[in-house]
Amino acid sequence: MKETSTKNNNFKVPSTENSADAEWGRASSQGDFVERLPPEVTVKIFSQLDIQSLCRASETCRRWNLTIRDNDDVWKPHCLTARAVCQREIDDDRKSGYTWRETFLRNYQKSKVKREWLSGRYSNIRSPENLPEKSMCPMDADTWGEILEAELKREVEKSQ
């Protein structure tokens, strides 16, 4: 078996030119799955990733980044998830012509913070100094109105 060296001369990798692995190696050197699969399959794969994985995948290489960045079908499911909390904001952005990706990026942090507020995570906080600064974001008056309504409803339910 022929040996080929890698960067580190102390480590030798045996050549497997006649194996199935070698065939895959030749095929993968001709391009990754994004190049080789039909676009709808690639989009389906990327659209199954959670946000953190999707962001990491977009950092893998330029082709993956472009595929992820430029395909609204990858972003739509995540945007619809955020819409469960930020329906008004997302609907307004979509009506204004923003792509699913732009809409998601504009509303992601707000949806996380708003979800925490609406779930009552900050119900027992009595002063601004006690709020976790890094998890806050600017919100409009309508959003604060929704949060206030949820807080008042919680208070009424507690007192009953």
UniProtKB/TrEMBL annotation:
It comes from the Eukaryota. Pathway: Protein modification; protein ubiquitination. Pfam families: F-box-like (PF12937). The keyword Cytoplasm applies. One of its GO terms (cellular component) is cytoplasm. Residues 1-19 have a biased composition (Polar residues). Residues 31-78 form the F-box domain. GO terms for biological process: protein ubiquitination; SCF-dependent proteasomal ubiquitin-dependent protein catabolic process. Residues 1-27 are annotated as: Disordered. SMART domains: FBOX (SM00256). It is found in: Cytoplasm. InterPro entries: F-box-like_dom_sf (IPR036047), F-box_dom (IPR001810). Keywords: Cytoplasm, Ubl conjugation pathway. Part of the SCF (SKP1-CUL1-F-box) E3 ubiquitin-protein ligase complex SCF(FBXO9) composed of CUL1, SKP1, RBX1 and FBXO9. Interacts with TTI1 and TELO2; when TTI1 and TELO2 are phosphorylated by CK2. Substrate recognition component of a SCF (SKP1-CUL1-F-box protein) E3 ubiquitin-protein ligase complex which mediates the ubiquitination and subsequent proteasomal degradation of target proteins and plays a role in several biological processes such as cell cycle, cell proliferation, or maintenance of chromosome stability. Ubiquitinates mTORC1-bound TTI1 and TELO2 when they are phosphorylated by CK2 following growth factor deprivation, leading to their degradation. In contrast, does not mediate ubiquitination of TTI1 and TELO2 when they are part of the mTORC2 complex. PANTHER family: F-BOX ONLY PROTEIN 48, F-BOX ONLY PROTEIN 48-RELATED. This is F-box only protein.
